[in-house]
Write a structure and sequence with these properties.
By secondary structure, the chain is of the alpha/beta class. 35% of the residues lie in helices and 25% in strands. It has helices at residues 47-55, 77-86, 103-113, 118-131, 148-159, 178-193, 205-211; strands at residues 2-13, 19-31, 36-40, 62-67, 70-71, 88-91, 166-170, 197-201, 214-217. The strands form two sheets. Strands 6-7-8-3-9 form a five-stranded parallel sheet, sandwiched between helices. It has a four-stranded antiparallel sheet with strand order 2-1-4-5, with helices on one face. Helix 3 crosses helix 4 (118-131) and helix 3 packs parallel to helix 5. The chain binds adenosine-5'-triphosphate (ATP). Residues 2-226 form the ABC transporter domain.
Amino acid sequence: MIRVSDLSKDFTLHTQGGTVIPVMRGAALTVAPGECVGLTGASGAGKSTLMRMIWGNYLAGAGSIRVAGIEVVGADPRVIVGLRRATLGYVSQFLRVVPRVPTLDVVAEPLLALNHPAEAARERAAELLARLNIPQRLWGLSPTTFSGGEQQRVNIARGFAHAWPVLLLDEPTASLDAGNREVVLGLIEEAKKRGTAILGIFHDEAARARVCDRLVDVTGFTPGKAA
Ligand SMILES: Nc1ncnc2c1ncn2[C@@H]1O[C@H](COP(=O)(O)OP(=O)(O)OP(=O)(O)O)[C@@H](O)[C@H]1O
């Protein structure tokens, strides 16, 4: 479902005399349906950069990223938008939302974008919000004023609203209490069972050991540090 091959990336610091920083060389990995692969490597090794290239936010310098058979490197932005709508989900570390949109709609939005009936979309959103212990009195409010942990749980609910066949998870259990962490691990396990291909960054080692089938150390793709 995800196939990365011979991927490289440099950052050019335009505000600092155009300094070019090579951050990735020859990155390669695959994630099969129903599999969860964890990215490891020290801070700064390039885990987030690799994830953002797959998501289509960072441009790759060279190489190939195929998500459900679609080439992401050099893709037209419309292709990326289409891929994200139906195929590729992403739970980032922080929730970014349009202000004033109620939480229930924030979570239902991916389903509404796929033309699911509004009532069914909101039902699914409510089910996830309840499961993630967001009090019902908050559902009608914008999550912009929520606590960090509440925002993260809204983000996770949104990330699991649609059954995206491919899912990117950036520290989904960070800063969650034990009960909510358990809920998130359960959601990940359910997604794997229905065949979702998952690529994740988990600093929570116990969570990683529980849900990941394999680990890929990105240090092997860091220029000058290759094993
Ligand atoms: N937008 C950017 N502009 C310039 N350099 C960047 C940018 N984003 C990341 N980098 C550099 O790329 C390298 C890899 O960073 P990245 O955030 O991918 O590491 P990471 O493995 O996810 O680290 P962490 O575990 O600390 O989140 C670092 O040296 C970082 O400074």
